[in-house]
Amino acid sequence: MALRFCKSRTYHDPLHGAISLDGGDPVEALLIRLIDTPAFQRLRRIRQLDTAFLTFHGAEGSRFTHSVGVLQVTRRLLDKLARRYPELRPYRAVTLVAALLHDIGHPPFSHAGEEIFGCRHEVWTARIVREDPQVATLLAEFDPQLPAQLEQVWQKRFPLPLVGQLIASQLDCDRFDYLMRDSLLTGAQYGHLDLDRILTVLDYDPETGSLSIPARKGLGAIEHYLVVRYFMYTQVYQHPKSLCARFILDRLFKRAQVLLQKGEIELDPILSAWCWAALAAQKGDPFELPLPLYLAADDVMFSYPFRFWAMVGKDPILADLARRYLERDLFKARNVTRLPAERRQELVATLSQKMQRDGLDPESYLGIRSAHVQGYSFYDQGIQLKTEDGYAEIAQLSPLVRALVETQSQVWLIFPRPYSDIVEGALSA
User: Fold this and answer.
1) Whether 320 contacts 361, CB under 8 Å
2) At residue 370, what are phi and psi to the nearest 5 degrees?
3) What is the pTM of this model?
4) CA 354, 355, 358, 361 torsion: positive or negative?
5) HEC sequence for the chain
6) pLDDT value, residue 407
7) How far apart are CA 172 and CA 259, in angstroms?
């Protein structure tokens, strides 16, 4: 371990209060230095909730604040467990670094950017750990095995299951932070978790190396957590206004890519490289970029051209979409779930013909978006609670959780407001 101690650091967080890192602790000194790298600082310029700020005006939090929050929750839980189970102490570095860096590979516009450009943040997180000169050097100086161990954690292959469960599972510190933080920043009241209670009931099973939850003490707290998650998805993450904003952002970049292929638009080298990589991904090729070009992109850089496209753009579609996004002149979203698939196709065809007659491009102004919510699923063995008779799946113990298992699907039609009469007529027929 070649890292020197460094000055201690305190981050004043709106959710968790003072998050203090001890520069005299080798692990926490590493965390401080990782936070100070350009790759991690870039997360300050990427919104956690992508386009949701156009729906909830307080949703301006960044991937940076969330990542530091996940570190804090993970540290609280792991250190509590390690006091009771000293055999967990050697895993402190890999667990806390994995928590801090889990989102470092996010593209501009977060999850919306993944859809727009066809990239996955998990892939780029692994590349940053391997290839970024500063991040990779810090990790290797601390422990040459640490980069490979981090990838094992994120790929759910780490030998001690607990480590991966704290970072990504049905009941992980990532979810704890974003549900509470997103509730705070959006002003929504659905995401109020009793985090102290949850962290108190979570335990460790030395025989399996996994998280353990006593059913008698933990059932109510976990039920509440799952209900909170369900309502945050239905009322916040899949809000129809946010779906419309994402749709416009997607169509805006798709239009820029069309013009780029035709040689009818000039883009800066970074955005141009991203658009060409996205076009390749649309054809089934991997989204591929040199790492420096990937890390050069953020929300600020990719939003910058919108003003010029809206003001002086030669392409009326690109100009209108850019203006709409900047001025929050969003399309309308209508729930068409109850319409049979054939009726939906007929409605889309009718709207397309009307738009073409009106001089609008249906490809840029009309779309279908599906939203799926499952309050609880059984992936990764679900959530196991410890009873007097051994472990039992939470859905076996809780009628409330059983009700959350069923997937709720909704289909939304997105279109300009002047066409509302046609849509309402089809829905009332």
Assistant:
1) no
2) -105, 140
3) 0.95
4) negative
5) CCCCCCCCEEEEECCCEEEEECCCCHHHHHHHHHHCCHHHHHHHHCECCHHHHHCCCCCCCEHHHHHHHHHHHHHHHHHHHHHHCHHHHHHHHHHHHHHHHCCCCCCCCHHHHHHHHCCCHHHHHHHHHHHCHHHHHHHHHHCCCHHHHHHHHHCCCCCCHHHHHHHCCCCCHHHHHHHHHHHHHHCCCCCCCCHHHHHHHCEEECCCCEEECEHHHHHHHHHHHHHHHHHHHHHHHCCHHHHHHHHHHHHHHHHHHHHHHHCCCCCCHHHHHHHHHHHHHHCCCCCCCCHHHHHCCCHHHHHHHHHHHHHHCCCHHHHHHHHHHHHCCCCEEEECCCCCHHHHHHHHHHHHHHHHHCCCCHHHHCEEEEEEECCCCCHHHCCEEEECCEEEEHHHHCHHHHHHHCCEEEEEEEECHHHHHHHHHHHHC
6) 80
7) 43
Do the beta carbons of residue 212 and residue 88 sit within 8 Å?
no
Strand partners for 369: 412
Cβ neighbours of 4 (radius 10 Å): 10
The pair of structure tokens assigned to 59 is 């949703």
Residues 177-230 have pLDDT tens digits of: 999 999 999 999 877 889 999 999 999 999 999 999 999 999 999 999 999 999
Q: Which amino acid is at 204?
A: Y
Tell me the CA end-to-end span of the chain in Å, nearest whole number: 71
pLDDT digits (tens, 9 = 90+) for 26-68: 999 999 999 999 999 999 999 999 999 999 999 999 999 999 9
Query: For the stretch 204-216, what's the b/e string if a residue is b when 16 or more beta carbons lie within 10 angstroms of its beta carbon?
Result: bbeeebbbbbebe
- Give the model's pLDDT for residue 327: 97
Residue 7: CB atoms within 10 A of its CB come to 9
**Do β-strands 408-415 and 367-373 pair in parallel, antiparallel, or remain unpaired?**
antiparallel
In the chain, the domains with their CATH numbers are 9-174 (1.10.3210.10)
Phi first, then psi: what are they for 390, rounded to 5°? 110, -165
Q: Predicted confidence band at 374 (pLDDT cuts at 50, 70, 90)? A: confident
Distance set, CA 197 to CA 47, 406, 418 (Å): 29, 27, 50
Provide the 10 A C-beta neighbour count for residue 133. Answer: 12
Cα distance between residue 38 and residue 35, in whole Å: 8
